[in-house]
Specification:
Blueprint: E1 4-8, H1 12-24, E2 28-32, H2 35-45, E3 49-53, H3 61-70, E4 79-83, H4 88-97, E5 101-104, H5 109-127, E6 133-136, E7 139-142, E8 147-150, E9 153-155, H6 159-170, E10 176-177, H7 178-186, H8 195-208, E11 215-218, E12 222-225
Parallel strand pairs: 1-2, 1-3, 3-4, 4-5
Antiparallel strand pairs: 6-7, 7-8, 8-9, 10-12, 11-12
């Protein structure tokens, strides 16, 4: 099965560099040079992965990402952001909106290829999940459709939030460290940026907790699911 990747950047030489190297790895590459064209192509093509520059003409890359995550037909497409903005707050902002990964410019082509493979591997692994669903109290996690329900009401989660909840649920009763969560969900050493996990956990809690505590913080270590299956 062919893998389609959309490369979005307003710098032509970067697009050509990424296109050439990704095609040598067997990927099918489409390109866009501004935010408006990017979102139109995302909706039309439904690529398997998007490499998205943050600073784009017409519509900023962060706004494009927001639109992708808000659209039901595109919200689960993995997105790796490419950007010259290297401040931690910029990275957190991108991850907060729903980026699956964040690569700072200038970058090495080999790093980009490794990140692309890691994100696609995680995404394809999630899609091939054999178990249909996990139920924790009044929370139901639909593993096949990437959907979560609370009291039969659907809760909209980003792909990363879904993966976090799924991993915690699959390891119910176990304390999972921040570094373990980074390694399993982001798929590589994230240089100790454990705040990435905390940001996603915070937003996940806001969406699934309403007077009830599902995710327990183990101070100095990590997190665990507070409910047992069948409770």
């Amino acid at each position: 099965m062919n893998t389609d990747i959309l490369v979005v950047d307003d710098e032509k030489h970067i697009v050509e560099l990424l296109k050439f190297n990704l095609e040598t790895q067997g990927y099918n590459i489409e390109t866009a040079y501004d935010g408006l064209d990017a979102f139109i192509k995302v909706r039309e093509l439904k690529p398997d992965l998007i490499l998205l520059d943050r600073m784009l003409p017409n519509i900023d890359g962060l706004e494009v990402l927001k639109k992708i995550r808000e659209d039901k037909s595109t919200k689960n497409i993995p997105v790796i952001m490419l950007t010259a903005k290297t401040m931690e707050k910029d990275k957190i902002e991108g991850l907060d909106v729903g980026a699956d990964d964040y690569i700072s410019k200038p970058f090495s082509v080999q790093e980009v290829l490794a990140r692309v493979k890691a994100v696609l591997r995680r995404y394809n692994s999630s899609k091939s999940e054999k178990k249909v669903s996990i139920e924790l109290g009044n929370i139901k996690i639909d593993l096949q459709n990437y959907e979560v329900f609370k009291d039969s009401k659907k809760i909209d989660l980003t792909l990363k939030e879904f993966e976090l909840l799924k991993l915690l649920a699959q390891n119910k009763g176990k304390v999972l460290s921040r570094n373990f969560l980074l390694d399993k969900i982001w798929g590589y050493e994230y240089f100790g940026e454990t705040r990435t996990v905390d940001v996603h956990i915070r937003h996940l809690r806001k969406k699934i907790e309403d007077g009830e505590k599902y995710i327990e913080t183990i101070r100095g270590v990590g997190y665990k699911i507070n409910l047992k299956e069948g409770d």
